[in-house]
Amino acid sequence: MNDPNQTVKGKNIPEGYELNEHGIPVPSLKTLQNILGEAKNMDDFFGKNGLLARLFKTTIESTMEAEMDYTLGYPKHRKTGLPNNRNGYNKKSLTTSIGEIPLNIPRDRNAEFEPRIVKKYQTKANDLEQKIISMYAYGNTTRDIQAEFSEMYGIDVSPEYISQATNKVWPLVQEWLTHPLSKVYPIVYLDAIYFKIRENNKILNKAINVALGIDLEGKKEVLGIYICENEGAKFWMQALTDLQQRGVKDILICCVDGLSGFKEAIQAVFPKTVIQRCIIHQIRRSLNYISWKDKKEFVADLKQVYEAINEETALAAFLKLKEKWNDRYPIVIRGWEQNWTELMEYMKFGAEIRRLIYTTNILENLNRHFRKLTKNRLIFPNEESALKAIYLGVERLSERWTMPVKDWGKILNQLAIHFDNRL
């Protein structure tokens, strides 16, 4: 009879298993074929004594044996004169998504060994769905997740099962999209990011409209996510109405890009809100019309406008800019004139508030995070899939947003004075 355990490179390998490139025992192709041939339903895969449970137990126990080999400095069954050696096993049950998995934890006589893969007081393992959801949140596609599980466990996880696991997120998304909000937000940023989404056998470029707020504690909070085919003032009015219906009574300052009609859309829902157009967006838009040979000189003159100490000084600098450049670039000058009031709102505040509101870059940074998480997903199969990915990205970021923005105490005092009793 063959020894049920074979030894390769000093490691004990269960029968029917082989070492992968990371030195972890995984089932051989023949073993998988035999097990898969016996499977007749999902329980044979994911049930208490199914394929995954057996693979999980063997992989964990084999890894702990390898850890013990490393701790002692020699493999199992080898006789040595060293003072410490193996001393049997402790029994332990680990709770997983597929039930209780009994494990044999190797021990040594000197009680020096503590496995890293299963901590001393650990009683629960991250379940399969949680791993899939976590990988999904990190931007992995279905194909990526399948490949990862194939390498980790030596099995194929079907696209249907991955979809089933990530679908468990959807009720959380729906709840989050309608959860109550605070009554007052000192600052709210509105902007959009575009993704390709499949709809009716067509691939559409849809806007994911994001509302990001800073609450009274100075902490960032994503207030809402809204999908539409085009970012428009009418749609934003609907989104702002949704925020109002979820409890928002007042927004002090709303920071937006240069979308036409934004001011009217905001003030239709929150009439007292100050609208600050993004200076950076306006500058970029202006430079699109400036000849390359004039850009350096024009930017130097424009800098005197948006870096002025107050609106009066900014206006004086702008009039000089207009006198110098209006003949060559009238459309640029007209753009600043038409939007002057919304562009210059930040001039009414101190440096700490100016830093927060003169641009929507704080939201663009959030959108870059979304891009990073979804870079592997060139096309989302539907809107629900896109919302799940964005929601999981928000959840990850929210864990980091534990501290208020810089100088928040000073900012809040300035806002309280400027906006009287509205806070």
| Strand fraction | 15-25%
The secondary structure category is alpha+beta
Shape: elongated
Physical arrangement of strands within the biggest beta sheet = 9-8-7-10-11
Q: Percent of residues in helical segments?
A: 40-55%
Series of H and E elements:
EEEEHHHEEHHHHEEEHEHEHHHHHHHHH
Which segments are poorly predicted (pLDDT under 50) over 5 or more consecutive residues?
A: 1-11
Describe the protein in words.
With 423 residues, this protein is α+β, with helices and mostly antiparallel strands. It has three domains: 5-125, no CATH class; 126-168; 181-418. Helices cover 46% and strands 20% of the residues. The protein contains 18 helices and eleven strands. The strands form four sheets. It has a five-stranded mixed beta sheet, with helices on both faces. Helix 8 (233-245) packs parallel to helix 9 (262-269) and helix 11 packs antiparallel against helix 12 (311-325). It is elongated, with a radius of gyration of 30 Å. The protein starts with a strand and ends in a 5-residue tail after the last helix. The model is unreliable at 1-11 (pLDDT under 50).
